[in-house]
Amino acid sequence: MAPAVTPLADVPVDTQSDDEARWRTAGERIESLLDAAAGPTARARAEQLVREVTDLYGAALERMLRAAVTAAPELAETFAADDLVASLLLVHGLHPHPVHRRIADALDRVRPYLGSHGGDVRLLDVVPEADGAVARLRFSGSCKSCPSSAATLELAISDAVLAAAPEVSSIEVVNAEPEPAAVIPAQSLLARVHSDGRRHVEWHAVPELDGLSPGQVGGFRVDGATVMACRVGDDYFAYHDRCAWCGSTFAGAVLTGQVLRCPHCATGFDVVHAGLSDSAQLEPVPVLMRDGVPTLALRSTSGGAGP
């Protein structure tokens, strides 16, 4: 693989990435503190305290947002583009974009990964319901029929939709054919991943992918797993570093157009279309841009080993 790409383990941790990770997990820390409250009375008081503080900051944030956007309307887009700011605006119901726009933008971010499976997804509608909104999606192509990564496909979509629209409680998949629609509760999208207690899926920021030039292939160690990543145009594609035909590593592989050729058995794989060849298929790794940083999803054992 390209020697210009620095292995992940040798790269110092980026301070900004640490800050983003800290704020991204702030909700979990707050919930843990609430859980630690001894007894129902103490928990009720702790929850009330959190609500009072949240409402106070929300009221101040609303005034600041109104003043800023009145003075410079373009700031609304700047705030919406910042994931941390946007998440706070969502908490307080102040996000400048309606739910349809937010979900459509979120699906645009996962579209390159869906495209690598030969498929696409489109938002049809968002329907208000008593227990939360329902997002109606339609899939096209073959992205629903890749058993090796069905769980991570669901994870990529649910992660994007729920982050952009927390008011969504379920996702309705509408078939292109005249078949009954299937309603999927948003939280149960992860059931297949969590049904095996030994495995779970985690997202890992890998900013080093930005070091790949168009047409370049690189190897990265992420959470104990070796991942082969490449860049085609402006899009990144990642697969587990194992040839599906001969089982060898892709070290030294060359990308020609969108075909990656194994340096050992010479089998060519289409990296844009799910890593397919005439006789085998690579195991894809989802790649999403989160906070402007390339992020990979890996299924790991409880001990942290790779897939």
From TrEMBL:
It holds the Pfam family NifU. Gene3D superfamilies: Fe-S cluster assembly (FSCA) (3.30.300.130), Rieske [2Fe-2S] iron-sulphur domain (2.102.10.10). GO terms for molecular function: 2 iron, 2 sulfur cluster binding; iron ion binding; monooxygenase activity; oxidoreductase activity, acting on paired donors, with incorporation or reduction of molecular oxygen. InterPro entries: FSCA_dom_sf, NIF_FeS_clus_asmbl_NifU_C, Rieske_2Fe-2S, Rieske_2Fe-2S_sf. GO terms for biological process: iron-sulfur cluster assembly. Residues 203-296 form the Rieske domain. Transmembrane segments: none annotated. Coiled coil: none annotated. Keywords: 2Fe-2S, Iron, Iron-sulfur, Metal-binding. The keyword Iron applies. May be involved in the formation or repair of [Fe-S] clusters present in iron-sulfur proteins. PANTHER family: FE_S BIOGENESIS PROTEIN NFUA (PTHR11178:SF51), IRON-SULFUR CLUSTER SCAFFOLD PROTEIN NFU-RELATED (PTHR11178). This is Iron-sulfur cluster-binding protein, Rieske family protein, putative. The lineage of its organism: Bacteria, Bacillati, Actinomycetota, Actinomycetes, Mycobacteriales.
